[in-house]
C-alpha cells in the first residue's frame, strides 16, 4: 500500500516509521527544509514541497496513493490537503489530524476526510477509559457513515455479564468489533460470553451511543433490589 503523509514533523515521522515496519510504501511531504530529515526515516521517500499546491501533489503522484494522511500542525493545511486528495486525486482513504478541538466539526466528508483523529480528544478519552467502568468513551469519529469508535468496560454488576454475544439484542447501527480481556484481544463470535471487566470496542452511530451505554450498564435484578 502506498501512503503519502503531509507533514514531516514528529507525528508524521512516527506514523511513517510504523507504516514502513508493516511493509508499506511511504512518502513524506513537507515545505520546510528543516523538516526534511532523511536520516531519521531513511526508508521513506521524501519531497520538499507545499502539500497545498496542486503542482506539488502532481509531483507526489497522489493519484497512486491508497491513503493520504494530513498530519501537519496546522488544521487549515490539513483540511486543504484532505480536500485536494479526495476531490482532485480520488484517494480512497484520507486521514486527517485535528490539532484544535474547536475545529473538529470541520473534519468531515465535505472536506474529504474519512477519519479525523483529534489528539486532545484521544488523550482525554484514554484518560477517561483508564478511570471509567460502565461509561461509554468515544475514541474516534469516522466521517463516512456517520459512526464513532467507542469503548465501554463491562461493569461487574452488568446484567449482560455471562450472556452470549449472539443472545444480546444490540441496538441498530452498532457493531461489536473487539473484546479485550486481560492480555487477550478477541474477535467476538455469537458463542462468546461477555465477562465483567471486558473492554468492548464498538463502531456505532452517534444516535445509538446512549442506548448502547444503557444496555451495557444495566444492573442485574439483584443489584436493583
UniProtKB/TrEMBL annotation:
Keywords: Ion transport, NAD, Potassium, Potassium transport, Transport. GO terms for cellular component: plasma membrane. GO terms for molecular function: potassium ion transmembrane transporter activity. Residues 1-117 form the RCK N-terminal domain. Gene3D superfamilies: NAD(P)-binding Rossmann-like Domain, Regulator of K+ conductance, C-terminal domain. Residues 137-218 form the RCK C-terminal domain. This is Trk system potassium uptake protein TrkA. The lineage of its organism: Bacteria, Bacillati, Actinomycetota, Actinomycetes, Kitasatosporales.
